[in-house]
Amino acid sequence: MPLNLTSIIKESSTVQGDAFIALMEKAAAVLRGESGRIGCQTVEDRLVRLDASGEAIVIGDLHGDLQSLTTILKGSGFMEKAADGNDVVLVFLGDYGDRGAHSAEVYYVVLTLKLRFPANMVLLRGNHEGPEDLLASPHDLPFQFRHRFGTDGAEAYAKTRELFAYFYNAVLVKERYVMVHGGLPADLSNAQDLARAHLMHPEKRFLEDLLWSDPSEAAQDVVFSPRGAGQLFGRDVTEKVLEKLGVKVLIRGHEPCEEGFRINHKGRVLTLFSMKGAPYFNKHGAYLQLPLSEKIENTQQLLPWIRKF
Ligand SMILES: [Mn+2]
Fold first, then answer.
1. Domains of the chain by start residue, with CATH
2. Ion ligand 1: residues, Cβ under 5 Å
3. pLDDT at 180 over 60
4. Which one in 85, 113, 192, 230 has a CA-CA gap of 20 to 30 Å to 184?
């Protein structure tokens, strides 16, 4: 397995179907086995609690954008930091594939890094990695894989799809942040609901809201979402749920932003979007380099740590 970033990225474009399938199988075994203490993480069902120390590099939706992933990995120095044993964790907010042209390559790079640095990586679940009954559309991953891997495409897709259930529902950093792909369920009571949302699906709508919902400035409580899944949630919901979780700010992805990021709900919500190009053509992508020990009250204080590209 190549160990430097340039060769991993190069290999992502040349890897054959059988090697890709083998990587997905190994990644599934690693993710399946995660529980309890792993480096600076404490894993509890599908919730990761991160220690409030060291640095988190937080990446928004990639949607098959290998170029943006490369820019972020180079710019943040993640691999050098992790290889040197620094206290660093790379958090993906979900939506790795679909839409963009290089979904297979993005999965290859992300999971190669996960195998190399298992304690330094957290992979959240996006609506494009949803459960069987609630998968985003268009879901062009199977077509991309067939095009890329030929007769191995169907199996490469099936193995990748198996990973979806192992991706995490949420990240919590005590007294500071909750990170999810989409939004906050209005009736969430505690961190255990984050950890077990997938087990209660579809009887309770926690998982659907975590993966699909969006903040709205106009909404009070929750209102119907034009996406057809999830809901639009108001500032009152954000404030109530953050309080219940004992944190200050929601960091999430899911919505394209012209500047790569957006602030909502009087600074209690930060949206990050890391993909550039078609079909959204946002001017910038963005990611976060977050010193986790710093205490914050509001996203305004995160501005110095946002990296636009
Ligand atoms: Mn999404």
1. 5-308 (3.60.21.10)
2. 95, 126-127, 254
3. yes
4. 113
